[in-house]
Amino acid sequence: MVWYPQDRSEDVVSPAKLSDGLAEVGEVGFGFDELFFSRTDPAGIIKFGNSVFQRIAGYIWAELLEKPHKIIRHADMPRAVFWLLWDTIKKNQPIGAYVKNRANDGRHYWVFAIVTPVEGGYLSVRLKPSSPVFDVVRREYAALRALEREQSPTPQQSAELLLARLRELGFDDYSAFMATALGAEIAARDRQLGYAPDAVIQCFDDLVKGARLLLEHASAIASAYMRNESVPFNFRVLAAQLGQEGAAIGVISTNYTLLSSEMRTILAGFVESAEAVYRAINDGYFLACTARMQREVIAFFASEKGESAGREEEMGLLDRQQTAYGARSISGLTDIVSKIAGFQQACVEMMRLAAGLEVTRVMGKVECSRHVGVKERMDELLGDLETFQRTIAASLKEIEHTNHRIRVEADGLLARAKKVA
Question: Of the candidates 364, 357, 360, which has an alpha carbon nearest to the alpha carbon of residue 380?
């Protein structure tokens, strides 16, 4: 059964609710307090929408329902975005994206869309964007669309170009981008509406920064290892040159070789653990923001006026969706806590190896004083070893501090989410 809201083709909006008091020329204006959504079947055929969607799109319901959602697609939109969108939701995963749509009268309107799989299709919840991220995206979309027109890449190739550009802008992948963007848009919307800052978004912003620090320090340790990978071999060469007199140096070389080999083994897992923390935080961030917007769209939809046919069914679907994403948000926070615990264990292993390196370095320093003929070379190798050991120690100290802070904040967010649920 389909609910037909009252047709409201007139474009009526309070200027005070617009970002700058007036819409741009050729732009359909709507308020920051207005949320709209539409539901499609798996093929993207519109099955339902609320009154704001119909009004902003400028179509009567007979022209929207049972039509492909691309009826509102704007020619300025890069094909890359829709390729990423469909590739993600077909895997039963949610996605967020900036979208420029075309209204029936030729005007345009921008939204940040959160698209999620639902029973029998997909649900798209949209809000008005106004953050600094939005300003960047408009420029990037224009450049990418111009390239698409000039070079005619496939949609997948265009998506790869977009992802590469996002990495240049500091986002490791699209998940990191959409989490940051949605958080920024909700925060900007809250400011526009005079709401208090969202404590959850603020915490996640801190978590993302912390996770990036973990990655940077883990990468610093890996890079330092690569720079010093030849030190064990050089110790062995030195021991061979000294013959019987180099036996002690040979023992030092063997110890360092064993430590180096063990470090090489766990380094890949160490960096992967840091990356897992980063991914879990970005996933949790997006899920938490999605759950909030779904709660808000339910309240907004309940306040809209329209005919009652089918309304109860849609409210039920929205409520089930909000409940599901509330649970997924809690699951995402639990995953963050779990990944942090795993990374902490990897840190313990690295600390053990760092302590072994320090012992090896002290033994080498003592032995160095007994071999005047190779002292200069020994000093050089020990200097490299000391630099390596100090890099590891300093990075691990920062990691330990950041790891603890992330764990505390994640535990706090998890407790808060469970209360809301």
Answer: 364
**How distant is the alpha carbon of residue 64 from its chain centre?**
33
Please give the pLDDT value at position 14: 33
Q: What strand order describes the sheet that includes 121-127?
A: 46-49, 36-40, 121-127, 108-118, 95-102
Cα torsion 399, 217, 289, 414 to 10°: value is -20
Structure tokens at 395: 């990075």
* Residues contacting residue 178 through CB under 8 Å, at least 6 positions apart: 95, 96, 97, 286
Cα–chain center distance at 224 = 27
3-state secondary structure of 116: strand
Residue identified by tokens 């698409």 is 148
pLDDT at 4: 31
User: How far is Cα of residue 421 from the mean position of the Cα atoms in its chain?
Assistant: 23
Give residue 310's region: left, alpha or beta (phi > 0; psi -120 to 50). Answer: left
Helix ranges (H only) for 228-246 are 231-242
**Residue 352 in tokens:** 């053990």
Q: Which of 228, 265, 203 is nearest to 415 (CA)?
A: 203
Cα–Cα distance measured from residue 176 to residue 172, given in angstroms and rounded to the nearest whole number: 6
**pLDDT interval class at 354 (50, 70, 90):** confident
Report the b/e string of 383-421 with b at 16+ CB within 10 A: ebbbebbebbbebbeebeebbeebbebbeebbeebeeee
Name the residue type at position 258: L
355 pLDDT band, cuts 50/70/90, is confident
* pLDDT at site 312: 82
What is the predicted pLDDT for the residue at 1? Answer: 28
With a cut of 90, say whether residue 314 has pLDDT above it.
no
Q: Pseudo-torsion of CA 21, 26, 31, 34, nearest 10°?
A: 180
